[in-house]
């Protein structure tokens, strides 16, 4: 099957289509006005997406942890003797919080 150019061209996104898609996603998932508890947001200073993460969260059963000298996903592995002190502390805090949540 061949796709002709007029058909393909009609499928491409333009600014209006992109804005509409963003609005639909925000409507479905709550955008940045979500009220969610029991979440730990970790942000890594060496992550290229750092500007898009949650750096503060005001709900009692949620928190944000900033890892200045870590890359994305560094907090997802078990605590290791080779982890920098900052990362070890963050992983310990995550363990404490999740353990507390699990016990209530």
TrEMBL record:
Origin superkingdom: Eukaryota
Q: Name one GO biological process term.
A: proteolysis
Which Gene Ontology molecular-function terms are recorded?
Answer: serine-type exopeptidase activity
Can you name this protein? Uncharacterized protein
Question: What is the organism field in this record?
Answer: Pseudolycoriella hygida
């Amino acid at each position: 099957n061949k796709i002709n150019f007029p058909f393909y061209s009609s499928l491409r996104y333009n600014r209006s289509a992109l804005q509409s898609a963003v609005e639909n996603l925000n409507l479905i998932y709550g955008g940045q006005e979500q009220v969610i508890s029991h979440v730990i947001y970790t942000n890594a200073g060496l992550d290229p997406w750092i500007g898009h993460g949650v750096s503060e969260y005001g709900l009692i059963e949620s928190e944000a942890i900033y890892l200045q000298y870590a890359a994305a996903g560094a907090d997802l592995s078990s605590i290791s003797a080779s982890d920098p002190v900052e990362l070890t502390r963050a992983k310990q805090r995550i363990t404490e919080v999740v353990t507390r949540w699990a016990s209530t």
